[in-house]
Amino acid sequence: MLDSDLLWRRCAHLGRVLLPLVDQEPGRQAERHENLRTWGITMALGERLMEVFASLAVHAVATDASMPATELDALPLRTVANAATGKRDFELLAGLPHTFTDDHDEQAVSLFRLSVYEGGHAARKLFQLSREVRHALIVLAEHAPMSCHTCGDAFRRAAAVGLPQ
Predict the structure, then answer these.
(1) Are 130 and 53 in contact (CB under 8 A)?
(2) In whole angstroms, what is the distance from residue 70 CA to residue 126 CA?
(3) Quick check: helix, strand or coil at residue 2?
(4) DSSP string, 61-113
(5) Distance between CA atoms of 56 and 149, rounded to whole angstroms?
(6) Calpha distance 14→59 (Å, rounded)
(7) What angle in degrees, to the nearest 10, is found between the helix axes of 103-118 and 120-142?
């Protein structure tokens, strides 16, 4: 397996465990669902786009730093949070694998890409989701008792609470 494939798989894993980890904090899920309703985004679509958004942000930071997948554990979540809102949508798409081993990931990235290219209302929704992803990453990084300062901390926390690897 190429390191770029392994890097994406690890980034996608972080995206998948982000919301379940954050939802351990009381009221977080209800708040997110209310935000999605307010923005006119279905929960399933909004949460899937948030997962891929987080995955893309981790991947963009790691790619910019020429970080191999084996070093991803040391990446600070706050840095990823800043990338979620600090990088333009097309910057998040740069450097992705040309093919994905997981069809679910490929479909989610394609949906994200379509929303970027569509512009207008779809781009506005991505902006709103980027802020929600940033908030979720900051909550995960800084709020006790679950504070996870790095991606590795998040992976260990996810394993400890029984989330799928």
Answers:
(1) yes
(2) 30
(3) coil
(4) HHHHTT--GGGGGGSBHHHHHHHHHHS-HHHHHTT--SS-S-HHHHHHHHHHH
(5) 18
(6) 10
(7) 130
Residue 57 contacts residue 84 (beta carbons within 8 Å)? yes
Distance CA 91, CA 54 (A): 13
Nearest to 129, CA basis, from 55, 64, 76: 55
Q: How many residues does the chain have?
A: 165
pTM: 0.91
Contact predicate 55/96, CB 8 Å: no
Convert the pLDDT of each residue in 128-147 to its tens digit.
Answer: 999 999 999 999 998 766 67
